[in-house]
Design a protein that fits this description.
CATH class of the domain at 151-178 and 532-557 and 573-604 and 612-748: Alpha Beta
Number of helices: 31
Pfam families: AAA
Helix content: 55-70%
CATH topology of the domain at 151-178 and 532-557 and 573-604 and 612-748: Rossmann fold
Radius of gyration: 37 Å
Structural class: mainly alpha
Largest sheet: 6 strands, mixed
InterPro entries: AAA+_ATPase (IPR003593), ATPase_AAA_core (IPR003959), N-DRC_Component (IPR052267), P-loop_NTPase (IPR027417)
CATH superfamily of the domain at 151-178 and 532-557 and 573-604 and 612-748: P-loop containing nucleotide triphosphate hydrolases
Biased composition (Basic and acidic residues): 367-385
Shape: globular
CATH architecture of the domain at 151-178 and 532-557 and 573-604 and 612-748: 3-Layer(aba) Sandwich
Biased composition (Basic residues): 491-518, 877-888
Domain AAA+ ATPase: 613-750
Number of strands: 6
Distance between the termini: 99 Å
Oligomer: single chain
Length: 888
């Protein structure tokens, strides 16, 4: 694509962003001197629809900006695109949290008055239909600059890890251990049994071949006898030519019809196009992107090298004028102060005059201090009043408190000024003033702009000149002061000493504040004191706690979008106990949640500092559902260090009473020193096991310190704890909820996802084993729909494993002679682990517990039962009163 393409896409994205900013902040359209009308109160459904529309538009803008930043070669444009893109990323994550919070609840969990019931899996299919947009627009992109912009630091870290692995373990890489549960025939056979199977198959093959040969010879003999016995009259040459023409025309017409039918099916999207042309175009596009990346790197390096030269140019050309102006302003201020009979010691007063502090800052602090004292007095009075009130007014006060506590939270105003909207509006204005009307007709190579480079370095030059001017004036003031002190016979010497004491007192206060930070458990262990991150890395590599991830992307989690999500969510589906059954999340919803909760905050420090702090997340679901793969995809997308603290990986490695503390301390300190980092805990139900198990060497011994170190994480720490579990009900749900901030359920794939899984797995296996340059296609007559039906209840990992066991290298080579059949996969699929309805029910119960669904149901039923009992009591009282009147 040409540079004009990405410039146009950038301009279009900024135009859409300008529209969204004005929708979010209605005060931007208000003229000066006029007051903006306050936004009205809205219901939960109106808030959800408002946030949903904003979310869809912001995701589109984010996708366009990410593509522009990835392919633009102009260095200064890329800087501006990145700044605005990080703000848009932040807004996307914020809107996702708002959508989860104000997701309209199912009628089964709806209360009166209406309360919000946060639900992680948001359905926007009905809104996409109204906007006439495809579901693919909701795929949140993963920015490539997370890895590319910090490639030098990541390579340096990877070389260090590789060196320690070679030194300590004798290997270059240490992949993540994944337990494969598939059963192969080679594991269940002895050598003699295998030889017997091969001999039996070979005898059968020879017998089939001999029988086919005999059948062919008999058919030839039969045809020969028929020909000899037949007395067919000779055909006229004209008639024979006509028959030949008829057969040829029929064959030719049928061939043309087949070609036209295939072209029509390709045109309407019912059949994939041939790969010959598409593959060539894709190769050309990939080469063009590589060339643009090379040019992008060259222009960036050229721009960074030129900044020092431009800095010297601006300093030499504009520096003297800046210095003269600053000296004039500061000397005028010094003259005014000296006219009042004072002599300034430094330039602090001048900067306070230019930028005065807010006037209301100190009075507010005093009011707060007074308020705290007043609150203390109130608390004491309340306690005394409570003691008296227990005798008499006990019920009234409790009722008022319950009314305040039970008041549901209402949606915030949908429009209005905010910090993020102000920054976005500033970014749009900067784009319009700098790039919208800029003429770049002569900049074909997209080199840096010298005028913009001068604007960048002008600020540092001004700071440098300002420092020089301030130092020079302070030196002159000190000389004047020394002359005045000498003339006054040193009368002000004591004041200087008092000032020094005051400074010492301030330092002492700061030291006291810094000592209040509570030390971590590992800081008390003498063995860990003074250890550098390199030393900790060497120890953890030796203990195999540092792993290399398999290169994979979030998009490798194959699955279809749920086109009827809203219908299923509002439908009245109930289990045998009469409870509403929530739908399983789709693969598209999981991909979006993983990118928004894990990838974007971990990859961008701007997003991490602005959005809700998610320190830990739990992936739970059946074995082979893709939990470990997604943990590795998160680390691969952000270039994070992968630290494996799985229960099976910790057993016996850190013995002793302080062993768990040492391990956790080194892992956390290394993760913070080499962030971004992912701390992976597989089978975390063993660490958070039910019951108070306190085994020193067991996984349960890590529970206490894990929670302590998790709480010590700061909002700026780009560290994420990812736990996985295929049996979460075996763990203590209370401890899991206390440790993990988010829970994502990886269900069994539904029917459309299984169709995609079968096709993608078969295509991957064919491509992997194909020896030719061209990638073979999946046969069009292969019925993947039937395979998807019979594989219901199997996880995505089981389906992939069945395909890998079936499509060996030899089988792929013989596909042209022996077409692929559906029944070939049935045997391999039958040997995989199947899942039953009871396991699915366990995951449903765990979801109800960690999401608060069970508690909400119980509270609603309890309230309904209480209302019913109250109504019965009223009826009984009414009946008794009526009976007494009758006696009278």
């Amino acid at each position: 694509m040409a540079n004009y393409t990405y410039d146009t896409k950038w301009q279009s994205a900024m135009t859409e962003l300008n529209e969204q900013v004005h929708i979010e902040d209605h005060t931007l359209d208000v003229e000066d001197g006029q007051e903006a009308t306050p936004p009205p109160e809205v219901s939960m459904l109106e808030a959800f629809q408002h946030y949903a529309c904003l979310y869809i538009k912001y995701v589109q803008i984010f996708a366009n900006l990410e593509e522009c930043y990835d392919q633009m070669v102009h260095p200064q444009k890329r800087i501006d695109v990145k700044q605005i893109m990080e703000l848009v990323m932040t807004r996307v994550v914020e809107l996702k949290h708002d959508l989860v919070k104000w997701n309209p609840p199912n009628p089964d969990v709806r209360t009166t008055p209406e309360r919000n019931f946060p639900w992680e899996y948001v359905n926007l299919d009905d809104l996409l239909v109204d906007l006439k947009l495809p579901p693919s627009l909701l795929e949140v992109p993963v920015p490539k600059y997370f890895v590319e912009d910090s490639s030098a630091d990541l390579k340096k870290r990877d070389r260090l890890v590789k060196g320690y692995m070679k030194l300590k373990l004798g290997v270059d890489t240490l992949p993540v251990e994944v337990a494969e549960e598939s059963v192969s025939l080679a594991d269940t056979m002895t050598l003699d049994e295998a030889i017997q199977v091969i001999q039996r198959n070979e005898r059968g093959r020879q017998g089939k071949q001999r029988g086919a040969l005999v059948r062919e010879l008999r058919e030839e003999e039969k045809q020969r006898r028929l020909y000899d016995n037949a007395q067919t009259p000779e055909m006229e040459p004209e008639l024979a030519a006509a028959n030949i023409q008829r057969v040829f025309r029929g064959h030719n017409s049928r061939g043309k019809a087949t070609i036209e039918r295939d072209e029509e099916l390709v045109f309407i999207g019912m059949k994939p196009p041939k790969h010959d042309k598409a593959t060539a175009l894709e190769m050309e596009l990939s080469l063009a992107k590589i060339r643009r990346k090379t040019l992008q790197t060259e222009n960036k390096e050229d721009y960074e090298r030129s900044l020092s030269d431009v800095h010297e140019t601006v300093k030499n050309e504009e520096g003297p004028f800046m210095k003269e102006k600053m000296l004039e302003e500061r000397r005028k201020w010094i003259t005014d102060v000296m006219a009042q009979g004072q002599l300034p010691e430094d330039m602090t007063g001048y900067y306070l005059m230019i930028n005065p502090p807010p006037v209301e800052a100190e009075p507010k602090e005093e009011e707060d201090a007074k308020g705290k004292k007043g609150d203390k007095g109130k608390k004491g009075g309340e306690k005394k009043g409570d003691k008296k009130g227990k005798k008499g007014d006990k019920g009234k006060k409790g009722a008022g408190d319950e009314e305040e506590d039970d008041k549901p939270e209402r949606p915030p105003p949908l429009t209005g000024p905010s910090e993020l909207c102000t920054k976005l509006a500033g970014g749009v204005n900067a784009f319009e003033s700098v790039w919208l009307e800029r003429d770049e007709s002569d900049n074909f190579q997209q080199k840096y702009d010298i005028d913009l480079a001068k604007d960048v370095v002008r600020g540092p030059v001004e700071c440098q000149v300002r420092q020089q001017v301030d130092d020079m004036l302070v030196l002159q003031l000190s000389n004047i002061k020394a002359q005045l002190e000498a003339a006054a016979a040193g009368k002000k010497g004591k004041k200087g000493k008092k000032g020094k004491k005051g400074k010492k007192g301030k330092k002492g206060k700061k030291d006291k504040k810094s000592k209040k930070a509570k030390p971590l458990p590992g800081d008390k262990i003498a063995e860990l004191k003074g250890r550098t991150p390199d030393t900790m890395l060497a120890i953890l590599v030796e203990q195999k706690l540092v792993n290399n991830v398999t290169p994979c992307a979030v998009s490798d989690f194959i699955g279809e979008y749920n086109y009827l999500g809203t219908v299923y969510q509002s439908s009245d589906r109930r289990d045998r106990w009469g409870n509403w059954v929530p739908q399983d999340p789709s693969a598209a919803q999981l991909r979006a949640a993983i990118v928004e909760y894990c990838v974007l905050p971990l990859g961008s420090s701007v997003v991490r500092a602005k959005v809700k702090h998610i320190r830990s997340i739990l992936f739970y679901g059946p074995k082979g559902s893709g939990k470990t793969m997604m943990a590795q995809a998160i680390a691969h997308a952000t270039g994070a260090l992968f630290l494996n603290m799985s229960a099976s990986n910790l057993v016996g490695k850190f013995p002793g009473k302080n062993g768990p503390t040492k391990a956790i301390h080194m892992v956390w300190m290394l993760a913070k020193a080499m962030q971004p980092a992912v701390i992976y805990i597989d089978d975390c139900e063993q660490i958070f096991a039910q019951g108070k198990k306190k085994a020193t060497d067991g996984p349960a011994g890590y529970r206490k310190d894990l929670l302590t170190y998790l709480k010590s994480m700061d909002i700026h720490d780009r560290v994420l704890v990812i736990g996985t579990s295929s049996n979460p009900m075996a763990g203590e749900v209370k401890d899991l909820k206390a440790f993990f901030d988010k829970f994502l359920y990886f269900p069994y794939p539904d029917y459309p996802s299984r169709v995609l899984l079968w096709r993608s797995s078969i295509q991957h296996a064919i491509q992997h084993h194909s020896s030719s340059g061209m990638t073979p296609r999946v046969p069009d007559d292969l019925d993947t729909s039937t395979l998807a039906h019979i594989s219901e209840g199997y996880s995505s990992g089981s389906i992939r494993q069945a395909v890998e066991n079936t499509l060996s290298a030899r089988r792929v080579e013989r596909m042209e002679k022996r077409p692929l059949q559906e029944d070939e996969f049935i045997g391999a699929l039958a040997r995989q682990n199947a899942t039953f309805a009871d396991d699915h029910e366990k995951f449903k119960n765990f979801t109800a517990q960690v999401t608060g669904l069970k508690e909400t149901r119980d509270a609603i039923r309890k309230a309904l039962a209480g209302d019913a009992e109250g109504a019965d009591d009223k009826d009984k009282k009414g009946g008794k009163k009526g009976g007494k009147k009758g006696k009278k």
